[in-house]
Amino acid sequence: MNLPRIIEAFFDADTRNDPDALVAAFSRNGSVTDEGVVHQGSDAVRIWWRAAKDKYHHVAVPVEVASAGDKLRVRATVTGRFPGSPAVLNYTFTIANGEIAGLEIG
User: Fold this and answer.
1) CATH of the domain at 50
2) Mind listing the pLDDT tens digit for each residue in 35-66?
3) What DSSP string describes 52-90?
4) How many CA atoms lie within 13 A of 90 on its CB side?
5) Whole-prediction pTM value?
6) Looking at the DSSP assignment, which residues form a beta bridge with residue 88?
7) 26, 100 in Cβ contact below 8 A?
8) Which residues form a coiled coil (predicted)?
């Protein structure tokens, strides 16, 4: 699978449980929308990621990628401590200037 370097950096940081590397993949004002809640800015993204890891102990493995305009959708198998694990989720990234400007998970 051919993922852009910044998307590879996101999933690699997530797998390695490295919040600094994960936040570094986002623009300063980047956002994550997960479970219907928007987390905007570096501090909010870090807090969201740590809370999700603490709650679900999840690992996401990309299995498919598709692009549409300025969006890149990655389907990933997510395994963790949650009902229905493993689940396939869509990670829809918006990339701007080589950074993640937005991420929607659903």
Assistant:
1) 3.10.450.50
2) 999 999 999 999 999 999 999 999 999 999 99
3) HHHHH--EEEEEEEEEETTEEEEEEEEESSSTT-SEEEE
4) 9
5) 0.94
6) 77
7) yes
8) none
For the chain, percent of residues with pLDDT exceeding 70:
100
The DSSP result for 13-33, as a single string, is HHHTT-HHHHHHTEEEEEEEE
Query: Does residue 59 contact residue 79 with C-beta atoms inside 8 Å?
Result: yes
The end-to-end CA distance of the chain, in Å, is 21
The structure tokens listed for 51 are 């809370």
List the structure tokens of 63.
């299995």
Q: How many domains are there within the chain?
A: 1
The whole-number pLDDT of residue 70 equals: 80
